[in-house]
Amino acid sequence: MQARVNQGDALTMASPSGLPATKVLGVPVSLVNMDLAVNTILGWVRDRKSHFICVRDVHGVVRAVEDPDIMALHYKAGMITPDGMPLVWLARWRGHRDVGRVCGADLVDALCEVSAKAGVSHYFFGGKPGVAERMAQNLVAKYPGFKVAGLETPPFRAMTAEEDAAVVERIKQSGAGVVWVGISTPKQEFWMRDHVDRLPGATLIGVGAAFDFHSGDVKRAPRWMRKTGFEWLHRLLSEPRRLWRRYLILAPKFVLMQLRQGRNG
């Protein structure tokens, strides 16, 4: 199902890939739902087009507002999916009725399921030691025919130029059509921006916590919480020391900023 675009939204623009987006506090959030996102990615892989995708929630939007470099990279992304339900609600409020939530963990499932049939191979770059391996193993077991092109856990420190070049060469030689990047926000967004042109034919997708979910290391919220916009509460209660600032400071800050801007800001 394609998302219909409300031409009356003054904040509508096109991303570098041609996808329409609506600006949320300056961040161009793509007007997509899960079906459209998956079909678009498969089209890019089939046509050997290189793009990177940011999976965006309200925390990420506020980080972009606060950091011009983070904001700027969003205008180079081929797609910015609405992860948080507030972004979906805002898009629908502006008249884009078919926009749906496309969070990282769900996108992994949806894209890997169809990739098993389409013959698209995937590379897993990120996570703590062992996480990428467990994630890949679980997806292979879940989706028969799913192809893993390669995987690795990069060092927490900055890589040397030689190490970075070796990573690029390994991914290129793997023939992966999709590269999942899970090295936390905003590090993964900068990495994708800096590497997308060095990995021809690959779509890079920054999914962060999805590595932990699909490896089985972290349990996701119940489905009803995901659908009603309360997955943030489950995550906060599960990891309060790490996520308290994201949900108790940055999320309310987003609401206040958006209220000041109103419907068209």
CA-atom Rg in angstroms: 18 Å
Shape estimate:
globular
**SSE arrangement, N to C:** EEEHEHHEHHEHEHEHEHHHH
Strand content: 15-25%
- Can you count the helices? 12
Round the mean pLDDT to the nearest integer and report it. Answer: 90
* Spatial strand order of the main sheet: 5-4-9-8-6-7
The count of β-strands is: 9
The biggest sheet amounts to: 6 strands, parallel
Helix content: 40-55%
Give the distance, in angstroms, between the N- and C-terminal Cα atoms.
27 Å
Q: What are the segments in which pLDDT stays under 50 over at least 5 consecutive residues?
A: none
Structure class: alpha/beta
Keywords:
265 residues, alpha/beta, six-stranded parallel beta sheet, 12 helices, 9 strands, globular
